[in-house]
Amino acid sequence: MKSIIQDQIRQLSDAIGLDEASLKILICTLLSYPFGIIFKRIPDQQYFLKNLYNVLVSSLYVFAICDLRSGLGTLLISSMGSYFITRYLRTPSMPWINFLFLMAHMFYSHVHLQFFAEYDPRVIDITGAQMILVMKLSAFGWSIYDGKQPKESLNDYDKSRAIYKHPNLLPFIGYVFFYSSLLTGPAFDYADYDKFIHSTLFDDVPEDKRPGRTRKRKIPRSGFESFSKLVQGIFWAILLFQAPKYVQTDYIFDQAFVKQHGFFYRIVYMYFLGFSYRLKYYAIWLIAEGACILCGIGYNGMDPVTGKFKWNRVQNIDPLAFEFGQNVHECLEAWNQNTNKWLKYYVYLRVAKKGRKPGFKSTVFTFATSAFWHGTRPGYYLTFVLGALLQTVGKFYRRNIRPYFLEANGKTSKSSKKIYDIISWITTQIAFGFLVQPFVILDFKKSLLCWQTVDYWLLGVTALTFFIYTGPFAKTFKFKAPKKANDRPVPIRADSAKLSKEEKEVVSNAISSKLEKNYDSPTLGLPSLDVFQNFDKHELDEDIHLLNKAWDSIKKRHFLDEDDFDGLKDAFNNFTDEINEIFDRKKEQIKEEIEKEATKHKLQ
């Protein structure tokens, strides 16, 4: 039976021109749609049957379609090792031991693939599935850990993901080998899977919107939303099959590429080549997301405004947001979104000591984890390092050029702002064409040779930008808010330097953010370089930005100049005094809330 299936796949591969490994993944992803329809009709209370069904469907994928005998061994080592570590290792270091075990095993797979394995288009690269597994299982370890901590010590996100009883083997295997996300993702937490299996994920669905005539089913209808994702995925797949007719990586290394075409043609060609790389991710991630929506795990509650169901729980990609993004950070937020969540909640925030905000150490560790997780090939690191630099370049431009296209209030756009937006979009997308080439080429020398065909233009722009905004003439180029003709520095009285209502709100938000530990991690692990530049002065988190905003507001309100030392000193003393007052007040409020919550749990 298996040989018949493999023969049919081989013939289909030759007919459509898609390599066997990619075709096998596509077949499994598409088969998840009919299997999802069947899953939804398993009775809600049949938890054992649901988990068994997931394992059996995945077994069909692994053995009959993908022929992944050795790859299955790799996945089993990671999953069983993690299961026993999280179940039997009773130490506060358990999540980190689990994390290091998973990363070490994946490192072995990356090294083996890079140095000891020959490329075979018929064999699926198991490291892709293993990368998904590392996200799921490292998050699982932290969720087990959180389930043993006092609830008042956890933030809302960790509480919602905490596991209070270690699952038995079948539910765990069902989670690990969930058929709709086995090979391509999306990754999600065990808490979501457990609610999905027990149908408590759908408790907020109104009775009149539950499907079924005689026996109501908890999982709501999702055919239209699922079909929409499928159509989108097919659209990008069609473009993927057409792309090789117009752009190919090999052509970059052909002497004719440089000799026959001008500089701007080569830059644009590289942009379309980078676009063609993204198409396969758009296609497979959207199709996989549609399969998850169809079986129900994509459900994410109801929109209180529209009253419609939300199906974005496992969303991994937003193609339009990426393609129309006006800066690197914005594009990366739309890309591989579940990896962003994993890096933020299970790496970035976990490195920081409990009760303290993430800082330089968290940023560096997250950057290293993201790069290491992707693989050991040099091309990954070329892309990652340049990506970090480009985020800083984007900040320089937004801080120093963008204000010229805004009104004096710094919010309202001038009519010329559209020009700024268009230029930002074009330059960002062109930059990505340059940035992503090593990520696909992988080889160090070939990556540099690729960049050489366009004269390393982006490296030059990046270096020039850093020189302009951090070099000896930086003050000349930095944006300065224009002063009105009658603006004069005036002495400032201590009693007039109090924070205004708006300024107090800004400071209060900043302090609340600090106390409640609401921090943003570097997107996809790529930090802006100013984190490294200023780590000994300020941790450039949102709370610092808000405090700076309030301080700038005071200076502008009192027309304070940087040269007015006495006025600045008096204003700053008042500013810090008020911050301390607000901080103490907020701290007491949060302390009272924690005590109330603790009393409430005792009474229960």
Give a description of the structure.
By secondary structure, the protein is mainly alpha-helical. The chain folds into three domains: 1-198, no CATH class; 354-477, no CATH class; 494-603, no CATH class. Helices cover 65% and strands 0% of the residues. The chain contains 27 helices and no strands. It has helices spanning 2-16, 20-40, 47-65, 69-88, 94-115, 126-146, 156-161, 169-176, 190-197, 223-242, 249-252, 255-259, 263-295, 319-323, 328-333, 337-351, 360-374, 378-400, 417-435, 437-441, 444-452, 457-470, 474-477, 501-515, 530-533, 542-557, 565-603. Helix 2 packs parallel to helix 13, helix 4 packs antiparallel against helix 5 and helix 4 (69-88) runs parallel beside helix 6 (126-146). The longest helix has 39 residues, at 565-603. The termini are far apart. 35% of the residues are buried. Mean pLDDT is 85; it is low at 492-496, 535-540 and 600-604.
Distance between the termini: 58 Å
Low-confidence stretches: 492-496, 535-540, 600-604
Tally the helices: what do you get?
Answer: 27
| Major sheet characteristics | none
In percent, how much strand structure appears in the residues? under 5%
Helix content: 55-70%
Q: What value does the average pLDDT take?
A: 85
Rg from alpha-carbon coordinates: 27 Å
Number of domains: 3
Helix-strand pattern, N to C?
Answer: HHHHHHHHHHHHHHHHHHHHHHHHHHH
How many strands in all?
0
Shape: globular
The helix-and-strand class reads: mainly alpha
